[in-house]
Design goal:
It is a single chain. The chain is mainly alpha-helical and about 300 residues long. The chain has helices spanning about 1-20, 30-40, 50-65, 75-80, 85-95, 100-130, 150-170, 175-195, 210-230, 235-250, 275-280; strands spanning about 255-260, 265-270, 290, 295. A two-stranded antiparallel ribbon has the order 1-2. Strand 1 (about 255-260) and strand 2 (about 265-270) form a beta hairpin.
């Protein structure tokens, strides 16, 4: 009973801001309003303070580069090792609804993305040429940020090799063209994630557009909310809806989990008891070729 009650309290805190949103897209002006509400509901932290600013900056970095494969240690050190004066200045700006420090940090991330994209172009051919049946699974755990671009390139190669091995176990990779197809699929998937941060601007200059402002504002709110404690989080309306469905064990649709492979969208898993599972006609690794009579062809995974 205690466990169920605890989960409910966490979700209530997470969902309150979502219900307060009047528009689908967040603006920077919404950040303070949402945080004011979270702080009002929080038991321990009723106002922003230096310790929360320190944590939020660290969380913003970790949410982007949890695997430590993009950012150099020299790039994150100014944000992870801030002195009290610097933290106080950032706190004062945030209290005035000035999020320029987060914009500056996002500029560092943008440059790291551009660098990683260039380096991945150099390692893709190497991964394909090295791939073989006894290709050992690379480690994904790094205790520190890389010291040089060479280390970044090696860690980007590790990510690509791990992705390659996964698809090697579920797809036929018997030609050079199909091996290259895995690398191209990896690049498309990774760039979708990177696109949430990279808007073709550096250091906060230029317009980021409504969608960019929404994504940036969402990241700042998530970082500030998580800084309050490990059990407090902010979810967008879409995220909250998906979490509610998973907790209620209620799923709409035919009961399949889709995945993107080199041959297109495939069935990764059948939900037991769902329509697809009961039909007996759909199997794991089947390809999805059309929906409602519409051939998928080059349709993106998100559209599917």
């Amino acid at each position: 009973m205690r466990e169920k009650l605890f989960c409910l309290l966490v979700l209530l805190i997470a969902w309150v801001p979502s219900s307060a949103l009047q528009q689908d897209l967040l603006k920077m002006g919404d950040i303070s309003r949402i945080m004011d509400r979270l702080l009002f509901l929080h038991i321990e932290n009723r106002e922003l303070k230096p310790s929360l600013i320190r944590r939020s900056m660290k969380i913003y970095i970790e949410n982007f580069d949890g695997e430590k494969s993009y950012l150099l240690e020299s790039e994150v050190a100014p944000y992870l090792n801030m002195n009290d004066k610097k933290v106080g200045e950032i706190l004062e700006r945030v209290q005035k609804r000035d999020y320029s420090d987060f914009i500056e940090l996002n500029g560092v991330i943008e440059r790291a993305i551009a660098r990683a994209q260039n380096l991945r172009g150099l390692v893709a051919e190497r991964v394909v040429s090295e791939a073989r049946e006894d290709f050992s699974s690379p480690s994904s755990s790094f205790s520190r940020y890389p010291q040089s671009e060479y280390e970044i390139m090696d860690r980007q190669r590790t990510r690509l090799a791990r992705f390659y091995l996964f698809h090697q176990g579920r797809s036929r990779l018997d030609t050079l063209e199909r091996k290259k197809g895995v690398c191209e699929l990896f690049e498309r998937k990774v760039r979708r994630f990177e696109g949430n941060y990279f808007f073709g601007r550096v250091g906060g200059r230029g317009s980021i557009g409504e969608r960019g402002e929404h994504l940036f504002s969402l990241r700042v709110v998530k970082s500030l909310a998580k800084s309050l404690d490990t059990h407090t989080a902010f979810f967008s309306p879409e995220e909250a809806y998906e979490m509610r469905l998973s907790l209620e064990k209620r799923f709409d649709g035919v009961g399949v989990i889709l995945s993107e492979g080199i041959d297109g969208v495939m069935i990764a898993e059948l939900i037991e008891g769902g329509a697809a599972y009961r039909s007996g006609q759909i199997k794991v690794n089947d390809l999805l070729v059309e929906v409602d009579g519409r051939l998928l062809g080059a349709t993106s995974f998100e559209e599917v």
